[in-house]
């Protein structure tokens, strides 16, 4: 494979419509890097932020967005020991996955089970990696606790419902429409709240006999966060995952004091860099659950590489559930 590949390229900050399909040069392979022929790539909400210059990482132009992919290794750096050309893998790349090939560090690459399709593998690393780290490492979610999941039909949200169920929690999901409630229940939620119709705070209190939720998984921010602080149990953990609502909320410190609760930041990418061994152990646990048939990644839409802008629009319109995947080869 040559060093120039077809990619969906960002050349200036803007919306999805500003991306163009063209050749992009790949850097020379570093000694601890691998090159992956991309078969499929997962679309994530931060991909829409990174092209707009609104993400915490701002790559230099030109670059291809795309933070995760699945495919086949075609080359490895001289210091890579446990991966080889021909291996079927999934990877977190930070950027560059919306392309025919991508280079990434070997420590961000995970071999996938033989029977795992590339489209499923491409949808797996970021949302499951984030959610397992959030619920287990940061949230200390215990069997029998109540887990409240905001944005429960979305990519990370649906994973949180599913993993919460696996960890023995009673899961309450919040969604913005009745159409999304069915899939959230199918993935293991005991109760679903349509926040367009009902008050999250009042319904959670009602469903928990006034106690509130023990762990709250919040990728939404904004009003969902504000309501969360008012329906959290004593010693509850409010997990800050992201701000899909567009508003970064502020927490009244007196509520944390009165409720005896914790507001806990979850930045999975930084955790994976700080503690790669623990991250690998988390992935081993996740892939074991997948192989046992306990996790069923939900891909609601796939798009070809040239339609990444349309895929992003579908994600931003909140019409999709679970993950959106880009099929490359």
Describe this structure as you would to a colleague.
This protein has 329 residues and is of the alpha/beta class. The protein folds into two domains: 4-124 and 297-327, Quinone Oxidoreductase, Chain A, domain 1, CATH 3.90.180.10; 129-269, Rossmann fold. It is built from eleven helices and 15 strands. It has helices at 45-50, 118-122, 125-138, 155-166, 178-186, 200-207, 222-228, 253-259, 268-274, 276-291, 308-316, and strands at residues 4-9, 20-25, 33-43, 68-76, 88-92, 101-105, 109-111, 146-149, 170-175, 191-194, 213-218, 232-240, 262-265, 299-304, 323-327. Strands 3, 4, 5, 6, 7, 14 and 15 form a seven-stranded mixed beta sheet that branches. Strands 10-9-8-11-12-13 form a six-stranded parallel beta sheet, with helices on both faces. Strands 1-2 form a two-stranded antiparallel sheet. Strand 9, helix 5 and strand 10 form a beta-alpha-beta unit. Helix 3 crosses helix 10 (276-291). The longest helix is centred in the last third of the chain and has 16 residues, at 276-291. The protein is globular, with a radius of gyration of 20 Å. The model has no long low-confidence stretch (mean pLDDT 96).
Give the class from helix and strand content and strand pairing. Answer: alpha/beta
Question: How many DSSP-defined strands?
Answer: 15
Mean pLDDT level: 96
Distance between the termini: 14 Å
Provide the number of structural domains: 2
Query: Strand-and-helix sequence, N→C?
Result: EEEHEEEEHHEHEHEHEHEHEHHEHE
Class of the largest domain in CATH? Alpha Beta
Describe the largest sheet.
7 strands, mixed
Task: Work out the oligomeric state of the chains in this entry.
Answer: single chain
CATH architecture of the largest domain: Alpha-Beta Complex
Q: Using the alpha-carbon principal axes, give the shape.
A: globular
Number of helices: 11
CATH fold descriptor of the largest domain: Quinone Oxidoreductase, Chain A, domain 1
Q: What are the low-pLDDT stretches, counting only 5+ consecutive residues below 50?
A: none
Percent of residues in helices: 25-40%
Rg, alpha carbons: 20 Å
Share in β-strands: 25-35%
């Amino acid at each position: 494979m040559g060093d120039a590949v077809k990619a969906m390229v960002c050349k200036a900050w803007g919306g999805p419509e500003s991306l163009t399909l063209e050749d992009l040069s790949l850097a020379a392979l570093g000694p601890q890097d691998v090159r992956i022929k991309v078969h499929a790539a997962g679309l994530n909400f931060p991909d829409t932020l990174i092209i707009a210059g609104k993400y915490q990482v701002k790559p230099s132009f030109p670059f291809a967005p795309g933070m995760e992919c699945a495919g086949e290794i075609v080359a490895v750096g001289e210091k890579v020991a446990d991966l080889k050309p021909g291996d079927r893998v999934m990877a977190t790349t930070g950027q560059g996955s919306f392309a025919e090939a991508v280079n990434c560090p070997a420590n961000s690459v995970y071999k996938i089970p033989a029977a795992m399709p590339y489209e499923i593998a491409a949808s797996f690393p970021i949302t499951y990696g984030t959610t397992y780290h959030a619920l287990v490492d940061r949230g200390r979610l215990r069997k029998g606790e109540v887990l409240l999941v905001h944005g429960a039909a979305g990519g990370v949200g649906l994973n949180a419902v599913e993993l919460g169920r696996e960890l023995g929690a009673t899961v309450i999901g919040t969604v913005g429409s009745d159409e999304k409630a069915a899939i959230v229940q199918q993935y293991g939620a005991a109760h679903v709240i349509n926040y367009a119709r009902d008050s999250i705070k009042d319904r959670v209190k009602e469903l928990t006999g006034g106690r509130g939720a023990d762990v709250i998984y919040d990728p939404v921010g904004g009003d969902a966060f504000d309501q969360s602080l008012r329906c959290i149990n004593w010693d509850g953990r409010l997990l800050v995952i992201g701000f899909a609502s567009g508003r970064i909320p502020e927490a009244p410190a007196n509520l944390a004091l009165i409720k005896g609760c914790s507001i806990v930041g979850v930045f999975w990418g930084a955790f994976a860099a700080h503690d790669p061994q623990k991250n690998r152990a988390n992935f081993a646990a996740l892939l074991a659950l997948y192989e046992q048939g306990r996790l069923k990644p939900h891909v609601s839409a796939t798009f070809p590489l040239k339609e990444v802008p349309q895929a992003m629009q579908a994600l931003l319109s909140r019409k999709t559930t679970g993950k959106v995947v880009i099929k490359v080869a």
